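Please produce the structure of this protein holding zinc ion.
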Amino acid sequence: MHPHPLPLISHQRWKLRLAFAALLMSGAAMMFDKQLSAVMSVQTYVPTLIGTAVGLAAMVFSVIAVRCPQCGTSLAWLAISQKSSSSWLDWLLDVSVCPKCGHSSIKEQSDQKNAL
Ligand SMILES: [Zn+2]
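Below is the modeled complex.
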C-alpha cells in the first residue's frame, strides 16, 4: 500500500482550532454587543472593538504560527494570499508538500516510526 502523506500541519491543527475558537468569540462579541455592553456596563462599541481585536489577533496568530516544519514558510499566509476564498482552508488542511522547499510529511512519518 502506498502511504498517504500526512498533511504538513497535522501537528499544528490545535493552532487553527484555537484561532477558530477566537474568531467565534470575536463574532459572538460583535453579535451580542448590546447584551455584553449592558453586562459589563460599558459603551456598546466596546464589545465590538474587543471582538475586532480578538478576530485580528486570531488571524495574525494563525499566519505567524502555522508554518512549514522545515523552512518556516507561513503556510496559513500562503493559503490565504494565494488560494481562492473557497479553497484556502481545504488546501491548508490537506497540503502535504511545502510549496516553497518541497518538504514532505512522509519523511517525518517514517522518522517517527524509526524513533519508536
Ligand atoms: Zn518548507
